[in-house]
Automatic annotation (TrEMBL):
It catalyses: an N-acylsphinganine + 2 Fe(II)-[cytochrome b5] + O2 + 2 H(+) = an N-acylsphing-4-enine + 2 Fe(III)-[cytochrome b5] + 2 H2O. It comes from Salvia divinorum. Keywords: Endoplasmic reticulum, Lipid metabolism, Membrane, Oxidoreductase, Transmembrane, Transmembrane helix. Its main location: endoplasmic reticulum. The chain crosses the membrane at residues 52-72, 79-99, 111-132, 159-180, 192-213. The keyword Oxidoreductase applies. Residues 15-53 form the Sphingolipid delta4-desaturase N-terminal domain. The keyword Lyase does not apply. It comes from the Eukaryota. It is found in: Endoplasmic reticulum membrane; Membrane. This is Sphingolipid delta(4)-desaturase DES1-like. CDD domains: Delta4-sphingolipid-FADS-like.
Length: 333
């Protein structure tokens, strides 16, 4: 099925659009998954959890908490520098570990993944693992669907972010937009697990302040904030689905930072097969290369951030959207 789209707000070349790209077909991953499985049924053998995920997560959590305690008497300048060049990498690793766990890719039993996600959440400083899973699974099931996929910027964001300066501010603050957007546009009532996540996280934060002071907690919070802004690893937020080629809505990254990010860069592969753990996504590409080598991809997340800021035609409107009716019609076919 061809990819039909329309960009209603593209007025002239070199000018940023005033509307999203609108697709009149379903997202590409479900159909490609069927094609790949029909040709390479052995790919099913890649499905399932990563048996070493829990050990990796435990190691990163302990290192980050130890680092926070170690820096409790340091100057704020030193804390900021260490947070940017060290702690941010660890907290990004944990955020993307939570992404893995949202797909139950550490244990076969879902509740074990949820507990591990709450544990992985600890150095991030704010409770988010349980809520993230709710919205993230919708992002997969309803990719690009207007009013459902909260990965897409709001129209308010898109109308306010119109030039290199405002895009730079948006990139620095994108973690706040990413976290707060669903709470304003599509709030979900908290359940028992959100309260568990909150209680455990507040307990850790209070304990850090009580034992090692505000600087220890400040280091953790700064590691999260700076790591989610103008930072190489934060480039994945933009690279995954921001449209630089109108005929493609998901993009992979095949650079060295995949080693620290659970291979989240293999993003086309991940959306095609979310049941394959990050440590095996490269094998999917090796088995079925003809489905991926022709797609646009990246080698540098830093370059993606630079292109996003400096390209006058690219901004928050550079996302593919579709109506829920398009999704519903594709399911009925």
């Amino acid at each position: 099925m061809g990819h039909q789209w329309k960009h209603n707000g593209e007025e002239e070349e070199g000018v940023m659009a005033s509307d999203f790209f609108w697709s009149y077909t379903d997202e590409p991953h479900a159909s490609r998954r069927k094609l790949i499985l029909s040709k390479y049924p052995q790919i099913r053998q890649l499905f399932g959890p990563d048996p070493f995920a829990s050990l990796q997560i435990a190691g990163v959590v302990l290192i980050q908490l130890w680092s926070a305690a170690f820096l409790s008497n340091a100057s704020w300048l030193k804390i900021l520098i260490v947070a940017y060049f060290f702690g941010s990498f660890l907290n990004n690793n944990l955020f993307l570990a939570i992404h893995e766990l949202s797909h139950n890719l550490a244990f076969s039993t879902p509740v074990y993944n949820r507990w591990l996600g709450i544990f992985a959440n600890l150095p991030i400083g704010v409770p988010m693992s349980v809520t993230f899973q709710k919205y993230h699974l919708e992002h997969h099931r309803y990719q690009g669907v207007d009013g459902v996929d909260m990965d897409i910027p709001s129209r308010t964001e898109a109308f306010l972010v119109r030039n290199a300066f405002t895009k730079s501010i948006w990139v620095i603050m994108q973690l706040f937009f990413y976290a707060l957007r669903p709470l304003f546009l599509k709030p979900k009532p908290p359940g028992l697990w959100e309260f568990v996540n909150l209680i455990v996280q507040v307990g850790l934060d209070v304990g850090m302040v009580y034992l090692w002071g505000w600087k220890a907690l400040g280091y953790l919070m700064l590691s999260t904030f700076v790591g989610g802004g103008m930072h190489p690893m934060a480039g994945h937020f933009i690279s995954e689905h921001y449209v630089f080629n109108p005929n493609q809505e998901t993009y992979s990254y095949y650079g060295p930072l995949n080693l620290m990010t659970w291979n989240v860069g293999y993003h086309n592969e991940h959306h095609d097969f979310p049941r394959i753990a990050g440590n095996k996504l490269h094998k999917l590409k090796e088995i079925a290369p003809e489905y991926y080598v022709s797609l646009d991809s990246y080698r540098s997340w830093s370059q993606v951030i630079y292109m996003y800021i400096m390209d006058s035609t690219v901004g928050p409107f550079s996302r593919m959207k579709r109506s829920l009716s398009v999704k519903s019609n594709s399911k009925s076919e």
